[in-house]
Every structure is written in C-alpha cells, then in structure tokens.
Amino acid sequence: MAMEYNKSPISLREGHIYIDGVEVADGVKCNIKFTPDVWTGQQLGEHGYSSRWLNYKITGDVTRRRSTNFLKEKIQEYKDSGITPEMTIQGVMDDAGSDYYQDYGTDTVTCVGCVLTGDLPLTVLDSGGDVVEDTIAFNAKDVIF
User: Which of 33, 37, 66, 72 lies most in the core, judged by the most C-beta atoms within 10 Å?
Assistant: First the structure.
C-alpha cells in the first residue's frame, strides 16, 4: 500500500473557456450552475415533507479581460437581424496534477443554446481601476457532460 501524504484538489487556475469553439484567451473566471426546480409538499397524516425535481435551470457567467469587441458584435448582430444570438459555452477543467484528473481525466461541461442575460457592459471607466473585466451572464437550454 502506497503512503499518501498530500491530497491534490483541482486547481481552479487550470482550465479553459470556449465560446462557439473559440478559446476565450482573456478568460478569468467561468461558473456554470444547474438549479433544480423543486416541489416540496406533504400528504395528510405525514409529519415530514417530500420533495421532487420538476424541472431545472442552467445558468452561468464568464468573466474576461476585454481584448476583443465580442459583446458589441453580438449586440449589433441582434440589432441588425432581430434574432436572439445563441452560443455554445464550454468550461474545461484539466488540472493534470489533481486527484480528480488522475481518477476521471478532464472535466468538461458544454452548455448549448446559451443566451446572454443581464447587463452587457459597453464601456467602463474608473480613475482608480486597473484593467477592464467584463462579466457576462447567460442562461442555457441544455448541458452536455
């Protein structure tokens, strides 16, 4: 039996973000969440509650340092066509030094039918600021593992 002294959790610094197959080279952070729509109730005579999933919502956000006019292009695309732009957003965790990677390999989550939500920053100025980072939120139609 091998003696193990250190655990190696996944480093959040090891990974990639892709939008429509193009790596977000200026990516800083990516969060993808699955939130079940949960019904909770009880029957007559029961003292506890039962719960079940009825549906779900897939949401996320990507933070990137602004180095392209990606958001302005998406906004202009919508203004010109009137069609909601949909994207595929993918997060890849590939920390080869982690215990997870040793057991399971690369962890990839692909969100399809992604639509940007919330405020989309067009310009940001701040006398005390450092560099411009845009955080874009999205909803997804489905997720593929």
Answer: 66
Give 144's strand partners: 110
Confirm whether pTM is higher than 0.85: yes
Whether 137 contacts 61, CB under 8 Å? yes
Separation of alpha carbons 51 and 122, rounded Å = 43
**What are the tokens at 136?**
């874009």
Other CB atoms within a 10 A radius of the CB of residue 84 amount to: 10
d(CA 39, CA 43): 13
- One-character DSSP codes across 94-129: --TTSHHHHHH--EEEEEEEEEEES---S----TT-
DSSP-H helix ranges across the chain: 70-81, 99-104
Mean pLDDT by 10 residues, the chain (145 residues): 78 95 94 98 94 98 93 96 98 95 96 97 89 95 97
